[in-house]
């Protein structure tokens, strides 16, 4: 790969990708609306507002792949999500369509399916059940990716990311955690594959407690190496037992599912 674009490069996942994907492409183009560290060797830094269609068109020129992490990654007011997550994602896909149709890894979210119960194991055929306005924007992104693949042959892996940190931070993350190492190997598997079409996957490590299945994506050859189980005793000792009547425990989206409407 000659040039890989990473949007949302100033955020937590963007920083993980910036470090973890060094050397994977000849040049890594890093973009965000927020300030970023200066470009290092084999890097390009481009400050860009995803809501600016002309700027995004320029941003997506001459790239062979896109890791789209940009946008708002928490619950927020609809008008803010509209600009960053809806319009911004549309602009990115239009830029990709008009600039050689590079493959895209779209950072979807477990909050696109957060109103499924924890007792239900999900796969790519499971229905969207967003737990928040933020989750709704990720459902939109997945639908947009499907449309652009069917109509224009722009390939996307819509990755429903769980919780990507150095280690899980609470009981829920024992099921949703994806290690940075597994995330990096997944990204490489996505872009190394001969084809993907539009593929919905779950961004999760090989945890003992599993809510999601990636069996349908076995053709990628991705096998996560890490597990949250090594952290279980530490986390359980540091936290109270979960209340099985709490909606945050019943539903996979956790506190996103139990919270009220953001704009109330």
Automatic annotation (TrEMBL):
Residues 5-165 form the NAD-dependent epimerase/dehydratase domain. The keyword Ribosomal protein does not apply. Transmembrane segments: none annotated. InterPro entries: Epimerase_deHydtase (IPR001509), NAD(P)-bd_dom_sf (IPR036291). GO terms for molecular function: oxidoreductase activity. Coiled coil: none annotated. Keywords: NAD, Oxidoreductase. Belongs to the NAD(P)-dependent epimerase/dehydratase family. This is NAD-dependent dehydratase. It comes from Thalassospira lohafexi.
